[in-house]
Amino acid sequence: MQLIRMKRLPIPDIYTECEWIVRFAMMERNRSGKPFCTVPFDHTLEAQAMGGRVRYGDGTAGPRACDYICQSLEEVEKLPGIDIENGRMRETLEAGRILRESGYEVLFQISGPFTIWNTLIDIKSIFKGIRKEPNRMEKLFGRMEAELLGLIGAVRRSGVRFFSYADSAGGMRILGPHMMEWATEYFTYGFLKKSEELLGKDGIMMLCPQTAYALKDMGYAQTEEITLPETMSYGNACLFLPGRAKFVGQICINRQNQILEDRKIQTIALK
Amino acid sequence: MSLKEELLKRMSDGVVDMEEDEVAEAAQEFIDSGFPAFEGIMNGLIDGMNRTSVLFEEEEYFVTDVLLCSDAMYAGLNVLKPYLPEESGDNKKKAVIGVVEGDTHDIGKNLVKIMMETAGFQMIDLGRDVPLQKFVDTAKEEQADLVCLSTLMTTTMGGMKTVIELLKDAGIRDQVKVMVGGGPVSQSFAAKIGADGYSQNAVEAVRLAKDLLQTAS
């Protein structure tokens, strides 16, 4: 936001127009000292590509949900899938491709189902559905899995190698252990396992530490350790991983400049 | 157990068990049997929410559980409320609550609102992504005792400080207490921006509000 104010960058163009997305991602990379150009800049992209309404904000706050477009689970079930061919999603995918072709590493931020639905419906309806109608919710999560896998495929085709995955609206402090277990069992593990194939030989997914912990705690994953050639930041250490691992989840991507003093990075192997 | 006790227990248990239909049914039976609505609310529904608060504090229940318990409580409240005698509500402490501009994460705010309502506060909920000036205007119009600000994002935390400054500019800072909360917010942040208090969760928020306004628990 500071950068937007300082440089007087145009809103909403920096979120909606490929050319501006590229410029903003490069500026943000240079300012932050991170090794990646990170796109998108917010967590409403997937929901918007499913029909959600987004307010782009101003120099003080970024894009966020407007009013909910769904009032019931029935309406969520009837939503279209993630449209990767049009609008801001298409522009963002294209920006990723351009950045890659210009030699930058790109980190594409993927949001989890709770975060996506949080833009589309009062999230309480989702929580209630899990408790009262788990079979119905399994189907809804299954559909979300297909949509997100489709998105990952499209991002990979644009040449991007690095992904992050987090679900801020579905964190442990919100869901509690029982619902977190349910979500990990019926969504997260299966989704990531299928993502593994799409990541291919050199794709890397940087998981939110909460997600990584839930997977390990439930026995779906184990930690492995890779020794780095020298002391480096977590972000730079991830650049060292293509071909050596598929998942990491040691540190939040927002703190990727943190130095790994012991020259070791913990990777995650799904079972 | 008398019929009244049995129905009160069904309402209370229904709230704890998140069974909306069961609570609404028991509340209707309570009214049909000629029992006073106020008693049903206090000794049935609120009792259930108080038990829920204890479970939340003991980490048996989590945010999602409390939200669903509150849905059950409101299902009962919808049945009982029309049978309450008219009351002005003048003696209730009034609080304006909302998520500051730029942020749409309202789960924590909703939880605080529910818990404070249960504890007897009159809550004016401005919702999420609330323009900062609106907190001040509403507090002024409603002669609120408290302003409760929530955010989950670091990028919007600064808005809390702005609200406090706007309250000063409007000349009402001395008339309202300001409470802040949310993921990135801390006691030291609250002190730094000149808020009157910070709470880590919804149960603490009720205690803090009572402390700040020195109301009986």
Automatic annotation (TrEMBL), chain A:
Residues 11-226 form the Uroporphyrinogen decarboxylase (URO-D) domain. GO terms for biological process: methylation. The keyword Manganese does not apply. The keyword Zinc does not apply. Keywords: Methyltransferase, Transferase. Gene3D superfamilies: 3.20.20.210. GO terms for molecular function: methyltransferase activity. This is Methylcobamide--CoM methyltransferase. It comes from Sellimonas caecigallum.
UniProtKB/TrEMBL annotation, chain B:
It comes from the Bacteria. Keywords: Cobalt, Metal-binding. InterPro entries: Cbl-bd_cap, Cobalamin-bd, Cobalamin-bd_sf, Met_Synthase/Corrinoid, Meth_synthase_dom. The keyword Signal does not apply. Residues 1-92 form the B12-binding N-terminal domain. SMART domains: B12-binding_2. Residues 92-217 form the B12-binding domain. This is Cobalamin-binding protein. The lineage of its organism: Bacteria, Bacillati, Bacillota, Clostridia, Lachnospirales.
